Amino acid sequence: MSAALESLVLRSFQVSFLEILGRSSTAEQEQGLLNFYREFVRENEIQNLSRLIDPVSFHDGHVLDVLHLEKSGFLAQKVMDLGSGGGVPGLLHQMIFKRPWILCDSEKRKAEFLQRLINDYPVDGSQVVNIRAEEWLSAGGKTDQISARAVGSVEKIYSWISKCSTWNKLILMKGPGWEEEWKKFSVLTKKKTPLLVMGEYRYEVGSERKQRVIIHLERKAANVLRGT
Questions:
Q1: Spatial distance between the Cα atoms of 182 and 90, rounded to a whole number of angstroms
Q2: Which of 34, 48, 114, 178 counts the highest number of beta carbons within 10 A?
Q3: What are the chain's domains?
Q4: CB within 8 Å of 67: residues ≥ 6 apart
Q5: Partner residues linked to 130 by β-bridges
Q6: Global pTM value
Q7: CA separation (Å) from 162 to 33, 119, 169?
Q8: 81 vs 96: CA distance, rounded Å
Q9: How far apart are CA 216 and CA 71, in angstroms?
Q10: Which residues, other chains included, contact 183 with Cβ-Cβ below 8 Å and sequence gap of 6+?
Q11: Is residue 170 within 8 Å of 218, Cβ to Cβ?
């Protein structure tokens, strides 16, 4: 990878970090970003992780989501990244902010990539789960919160994990269709939705000012399962 590409990635990160979080990024955080970017681009030549790999699209499509997720204040202490794939948001957030995530992906090759990176760039408490999230949760795996980005609708995600008792909080990263998606979910659950919206964080990305929203959901008390 050329130094020029890395310089573009780094400069965009520094500017956005200051604008979004109100402080300058540290040398350690910048190195974490660059380590991830190098590994991400290299692995993308072996398996398809993302089409957003040039400096601009990588920044607008991945980095900004992670910075805004940090700013939202919605993250719990122990978070599972459902369908982690190429590692966004979980692994990228972990490598920048040095906070451990549970990275879950049932695809063997993607899980192997995630495992290699947490071995090479360790953060205490992080782990990779190479089975479906509901299988891990049903087997007693515990997390404070589940995060999902581009893995399906709230209806689909809830259907996967609703019978598991070891989670109560959910973060969804969505685009402009969120309101319609939530409305459909509410209708399907006969307006007695088992989830409560605890907060929303809205932002824009890129020159086209694409709309994004991070939603913090919690199970209603009546739908909290006991035991494992």
A1: 24
A2: 114
A3: 64-223 (3.40.50.150)
A4: 16, 17, 20, 21
A5: none
A6: 0.94
A7: 34, 32, 11
A8: 16
A9: 13
A10: none
A11: yes
Can you give the length of the chain in residues?
Answer: 228
Of 188, 215, 211, whose CA–CA distance to 72 is shortest? 215
Per-residue pLDDT of the chain (228 residues; tens, 9 = 90+): 688 999 999 999 999 999 999 999 999 999 999 999 999 999 999 999 999 999 999 999 999 999 999 999 999 999 999 999 999 999 999 999 999 999 999 999 999 999 999 999 999 999 999 999 999 999 999 999 999 998 999 999 999 999 998 899 999 999 999 999 999 998 888 767 899 999 999 999 999 999 999 999 999 874 555 443
CA distance 171 to 190: 22
Place of tokens 């959901």: 217
Q: What is the DSSP letter of 37?
A: H
Q: What share of the chain is helix, strand, coil (3-state, %, to 5)?
A: 45, 20, 35
Q: Which of 12, 117, 114, 103 is nearest to 58 (CA)?
A: 12
Q: 111 is written with which tokens? A: 């899980």
- Nearest-10 Cα torsion for 46, 89, 5, 14: -170
Tokens 């006969």 correspond to 190
The residue assigned the tokens 């309101």 is: 179
Rounded-to-integer distance, Cα 164 and Cα 162, Å: 6
How many angstroms separate the CA atoms of 184 and 186, rounded?
5
Peptide bond into 194 cis (omega under 30): no
